[in-house]
From TrEMBL, chains A, B:
UniProt cross-references to InterPro entries, sorted A to Z: FAD-linked_oxidoreductase-like, Fadh2_euk, Mehydrof_redctse-like, MTHFR_C
Residue span, MTHFR SAM-binding regulatory domain: 343-643
E.C. numbers: 1.5.1.53
Catalytic activity from the UniProt record: (6S)-5-methyl-5,6,7,8-tetrahydrofolate + NADP(+) = (6R)-5,10-methylene-5,6,7,8-tetrahydrofolate + NADPH + H(+)
Listed SUPFAM superfamilies: FAD-linked oxidoreductase (SSF51730)
Biological process terms in GO annotation: methionine biosynthetic process; tetrahydrofolate interconversion
Family statement: Belongs to the methylenetetrahydrofolate reductase family.
Gene source species: Oncorhynchus mykiss
UniProt entry keywords in alphabetical sequence: Allosteric enzyme, FAD, Flavoprotein, NADP, Oxidoreductase, Phosphoprotein
Name of the encoding gene: LOC110491842
SUBUNIT field: Homodimer.
UniProt protein name: Methylenetetrahydrofolate reductase (NADPH)
């Protein structure tokens, strides 16, 4: 006989549910949206605790703000690249001299905001309090909170000038800043503080410095990141000493891969650290050989990190990147910590702003311009649950607003001219740019076309599946800027089209979006009549002349997923309302990114301007996702009808 | 060359969209939910106009309130049956003597409310104003509005007693009531008024009566239903006369199929109508043969209706049913107007209450008890868009509230005892009742089991597909009360599992819900470990001991549909919160409907009580909808493990 007693033990008694239980609906703290990744809702210290408890090692990356706007554009690209390796967080240093709290695209504040909002990275903003008023500091913190930043590295900072003195009631130590943050913002921010494995250079003693650190933690700091060091022992002793005086929070070692002789000297000078002799002995002889020094730095860092990780006292490593990629990535790869996880929580790049954590649906139009979409909807109050948009949402942000990535290409004007043509002679030469991009082949001048105004990156792997068809239609002036194939229930962990939690199935309706001439559109509309109601279309020109067979202005879900134990998720829709906003952006890119490469009144510029003024933007959805994609057939039919127009029926006047 | 001019003509210029256009988001009156049937949002007069303009004929049905509660239960069943033929609306007469505006289950108000809320029928409530104060009438109208009624048939009614006199400023004519409704409720209600093809019996003349009718329409009535008549010409002349004096609204002929000699005489006496001699000549000789009279009535009515419909002046027919089904249904069938449309807007029976018109998701548990679900959620303020429930919704209504269909079976106690056993001898005899129900076969006493406490109807066609499996498991005490098979993308017009608009695809995850003994549950839990995470389960007993592997208390979508040009619709979910409410109802039905059939302390009652107290309610979902349903395998594995329990491993004390 199987005993029942053992089972009973695993039952959870739900209080208040033995009767009809009005309470239980309150008790259930069911989230308002199907949560696809705990990462999107957890705060940093909880993520850190979860990762530490699960025993896996992780890393984080430190960057400093750039000096120029184009440096900022490059740094944001670096965030995207280095973000793909899976850092637990990144942090942005505070440059008191660089207007760090301003709205300049190079400010610490704006760079951290960009990392959170546009790159979806958990980020820590440094903040120094030395020589600042409380009002000023509160202002920075309020601004950071408003921008969606949730973590602060609280630092004293270096006094400006020699005449600095302690100030009664002012910010004399980082401890004062920690207290101020907790006092003014309660538990909103996660707070990090700095630790000095060899003692702060200005401290009276190592022990005195440890006591200061304990004060910072007691004041409310959540974890510690240390100053760089060169020997694993230095850090491990420091951790032991911290634990001995009752510091229990996580302590992350600051790792500095030596990347060059000059940068090492400069850093050592600033931080007043001593480089151990065994390192100097290796470096001095090769000080003019950058590659050799970097290789040594990688080797030395990997060795030290191995010791740290194997000690069991180090859950994660914090890297001082100096805004460079190669050395840090190599160290992480050798340590096995760089993990490019192809699994995506959603088909599009999520934002880490707290108010967007419930966002689970976007219009497909911005698929290649997610940052533009985030920017243009940044003032929205909420991100609709399960469906896109609603009439009470504010409109999209204006097109003419300035921002780092708005209408800006990552490539230089020269590079763009090489890719898109120094001189255009006809619409046909534009078509050739599109086909070169699609085939990732050199254009007639021998330059590979790596991007288009609507696509900053090369084609997505799933679009590659349709390369032959895309090539064929672009040759004839169906200038595709967005497309997705039909997917009828592929596993959610499919390496190319998968997304969401494991064990699910993802689906897509085929989508095709392109510019084409009004002559083509005239014929296309005739063809589309044959495809009713299978194909939905929206066709619009720059003036807003718009024709569609969409039902009641309702969105059409074109990507969705079915997962175990969850509601349906439909992250991508074709939405008639937002299409009219996208249309403005898509047409503007012809002029802003392409036409303006050429002289005013030049033939090249006139050709792009002609396309902008006269072409239509078309989107097509094949609703019959279990069947083969019919959209290529639609375009073929259009070409067929263009090539063989029906003869005019002669009307016989005698009849 | 194909000219472009012709295409341009069909473009709609959207104002305000040629620039980024903040206005266009306001212009789009996109509804807040994917609308599956215009019928759910249109008001009656618009439906009528749309049907009339499209040229198809329709019908409507008049009922009077019942005298007894069991009469009410039967009438509600009749609404369901007659509703399946597709009436445009039904109307409920007002019985001034029968407390018509009260909360009694037999009142006009409650019957109309039931038709709207629980049967999903567009309904008109009659209202008579004679001898009523304005306050009283306003009270009735407010109550009707609150209950979700949207249409009023405004009547004067018969004066009570002989001493009635016109009252200054009172309700002397139906016109006064129409004016009052428009004055107090603006355009909220659609208003219908009565027309008399042969003149109102109290009117001075036919012309005088027509003028009164014109006044009623001018005061704000939307359409006219006429008194019954016996010759098509009578009605067609009346319509011509109405049009001649400027009455332009729809005029619906009141059709009375003669169903018996006595009922005809009574009606004629009340309405002061004359029966034409050609009809009396036929009827008098057969006045004692009910069947013959009914057949004649059907034939006579069909003939007259054909003339009416062919006249081109009659868009729809209004039937005085006298609360009977046969004659009216037969007339409608012969006219080709009775159309049982298997297409369903959603998998469950919708309610016609205005506030529920956006309702598009329900827990699966109430699949066989939709009226109970509607009743228990009637106080909810909103019906979530796209997903079930949210924590701010009020709790489910209490179980002990009284209502027509709560805990009441349509069958008599006698009939139930015959089906479910005059005397139960063991749990096994309960299992046999379940298997008899599932196989729709007579039980051991020779009575067909037509219902169970959890299922008022025979098995749904889609459940029939699983009859063999259901039979097998019920025999062994897995007492199934709800189930659905896996559906992987069947067309939405599939006659068995289809729902929603055409051209779509519907899906289901397999679902199985049953009561079973604690011994079985113990083994089942072991088996379920092998099926993680493919199978989600909730297992609970009457005391609320609850075990589940549901993720974060999130609902699991188990029925969904993908349609052309729309968002995903997921009308059925397995929701952990509502399951705890359903559990109370499901366990209570054992006692209220079954145990109480037997004497207190009788063995039969004790057996049911034992099951109620000791069995568990289990639900299982197979998340892997593209594969074959594994839930039967789960149950098989449970039986297998019960039959062949693993031998205890003898522990060797020597080792």
């Amino acid at each position: 006989m199987v005993s029942f007693g053992r089972v009973e033990a695993i039952f959870i008694i739900s209080p208040g549910t033995s009767n009809s239980g009005g309470e239980s609906s309150k008790e259930s703290s069911r989230s308002s949206t199907p949560v696809l990744a705990a990462d999107r809702t957890e705060r940093l210290r909880d993520k850190m605790r979860r990762r530490t408890e699960s025993g896996d090692h992780w890393f984080s990356l430190e960057f400093f703000p750039p000096r120029t706007a184009s440096g900022a554009v490059n740094l944001v690209s670096r965030f995207d690249r280095m973000g793909s390796g899976g850092p637990l967080f990144i942090d942005i240093t505070w440059h008191p001299a660089g207007d760090p709290g301003s709205n300049k695209e190079t400010s610490s504040m704006m760079i951290a905001s960009t990392a959170v909002n546009y790159c979806g990275l958990e980020s820590i903003l440094h903040l120094t309090c030395c020589n600042q008023t409380k009002e000023k500091i509160t202002g920075y913190l309020s601004k950071a909170k408003h921008l969606g930043l949730k973590n602060i590295m609280a630092l004293r900072g270096d006094p400006v000038g020699a005449d600095w003195e302690e100030e009664e009631g002012g910010f004399n130590y980082a401890t004062d800043l920690v207290k101020h943050i907790r006092c003014e913002f309660d538990d909103y921010f996660d707070i990090c503080v700095a630790g000095y494995p060899t003692g702060h250079p200005e401290a009276e003693s190592y022990d005195e410095d440890l006591r200061h650190l304990k004060e910072k933690v007691d004041a409310g700091a959540d974890f510690i990141i240390t100053q760089l060091f060169f020997r694993a022992d230095t850090f491990l002793k420091f951790v032991r000493d911290c634990r001995a005086i009752g510091i229990t929070c996580p302590i992350l070692p600051g790792i500095f891969p030596i990347q060059g002789y000059q940068s090492l000297r400069q850093l050592v000078k600033l931080s007043k650290l001593e480089v151990p002799e065994e390192i100097m002995r290796v470096i001095e002889p090769i000080k003019d050989n950058d590659a050799a020094i970097r290789n040594y730095g990688i080797e030395q860092t990997v060795g030290m990190c191995r010791v740290l990780l194997e000690s069991g006292n180090v859950p994660g490593l914090h890297f001082y990147t100096l805004n460079r990629e190669v050395a840090t990535m190599e160290v992480l790869r050798q340590l096995g910590l760089w993990i490019e996880d192809p699994r995506r929580p959603l088909p599009w790049a999520v934002s880490a702003h707290p108010k967007r954590k419930v966002e689970d649906v976007r219009p497909i139009f911005w698929a290649s311009r997610p940052k533009s979409y985030i920017y243009r909807t940044q003032d929205w109050d909420d991100f609709p649950n399960g469906r896109w948009g609603n009439s009470s949402s504010p409109a999209f942000g204006e097109l003419n607003d300035y921002y780092l990535f708005y209408l800006k290409s990552k490539s230089s004007k020269d590079a763009l001219l090489k890719m898109w043509g120094e001189e255009l002679t006809s619409e046909q030469s534009v078509y050739e740019v599109f086909t070169s991009y699609i085939k990732a082949q050199p254009n007639c001048a021998g330059h590979k076309v790596m991007c288009l105004p609507w696509n900053d990156e090369l084609l997505a792997p799933e679009t590659n599946l349709m390369m032959d068809e895309l090539d064929k239609v672009n040759r004839r002036g169906v200038l595709t800027i967005n497309s997705q194939p039909t997917i009828n229930g592929k596993p959610s962990d499919d390496p190319i089209v998968g997304w969401g939690p494991p064990g699910g199935y993802v689906f897509q309706k085929a989508y095709l979006e392109f510019f084409t001439s009004s002559e083509n559109v005239t014929v296309l509309l005739k063809v589309l009549k044959k495809y009713e109601p299978r194909v939905n279309y929206h066709i619009v020109n720059v003036h807003g002349q718009n024709t569609t067979n969409a039902h009641d202005m309702q969105p059409n879900a074109v990507t969705w997923g079915i997962f175990p134990g969850r509601e349906i998720v439909q992250p991508t829709v074709v939405d008639p309302v937002s299409f009219m906003y996208w249309k403005d952006e898509a047409f503007a890119l012809w002029i802003e990114q392409w036409a303006k490469l050429y002289e005013d009144e030049s033939p090249s510029r006139m050709i792009i301007k002609y396309i902008h003024d006269n072409y239509f933007l078309v989107n097509l959805v094949d609703n019959d996702f279990p069947l083969d994609n019919c959209l290529w057939q639609v375009i073929d039919d259009m070409f067929e009808l263009l090539d063989n127009p029906p003869e005019e029926q002669p009307t016989d006047p005698a009849k």
